[in-house]
């Protein structure tokens, strides 16, 4: 089976490269059988940047695009540029929450321009995964709605970092996306649980976190999902969230447990091509 992995697409839908293993993480990913990866920007603080206007995100985006170019020497890598929803707290505490939301919207518009220029394939947004005030929650939803509009206009996918999954929450997000006019299959719930049947009913696309037996649980419910590690590459938490070899291992596990190569191709190639508008070549 190991010898055949080079013929099978293995895509990690959400990974960060920060300041631990960096590109060595992708070498581990490749050696384990990984072929394609979506590399996502982190918080502005990870880059030593404190944005006071949307254009300040350019420094972050340029650094990330350069990193992705280097990553393409190892595997096929795609850039996802975004404004993490936790920026509302980081920026808001010093600049005020209304101003923070404006800066985040401007940053998202800039990310959309990078997509239009072919430097990235998707943007990232969402809303806080922690308890916030009613004002911050309202503003966060406004930022996320604007992100949907940006992705719609750029004809690209959008990855969402949100609160823990609930059917009510995901339906609420879907309604906002519909109102903004973006196709729901291009709205990706990052760090999704394996409830792929519920996601299919709602319309949003799940990027299932490859933790425990999530991949197997998802595959028993359908093939409308992708897999991710959410690897952070933080030296203080070297294996968080999951290590870079995890998705290749889980793909091998699916095959070993009797799931078909056709399912793997659907999860790691066909779904990725549909959601992100890219071509997964081996």
Provide an overview of this structure.
This protein is of the alpha/beta class and 282 residues long. It has one domain (2-276): TIM Barrel (Alpha-Beta Barrel), CATH 3.20.20. Helices cover 46% and strands 15% of the residues. The protein contains 10 helices and 8 strands. The chain has helices spanning 23-31, 57-71, 87-95, 97-116, 134-154, 167-180, 196-202, 214-221, 246-256, 261-276; strands spanning 11-15, 36-40, 76-82, 122-126, 157-161, 187-192, 205-209, 226-228. Strands 1-2-3-4-5-6-7-8 form an 8-stranded parallel β-sheet. α3 (87-95) crosses α4 (97-116). It starts with 10 loop residues before the first strand and ends in a 6-residue tail after the last helix. Mean pLDDT is 96; it is low at 1-6.
Please render the helix and strand layout as text.
Elements: E1 11-15, H1 23-31, E2 36-40, H2 57-71, E3 76-82, H3 87-95, H4 97-116, E4 122-126, H5 134-154, E5 157-161, H6 167-180, E6 187-192, H7 196-202, E7 205-209, H8 214-221, E8 226-228, H9 246-256, H10 261-276
Parallel strand pairs: 1-2, 2-3, 3-4, 4-5, 5-6, 6-7, 7-8
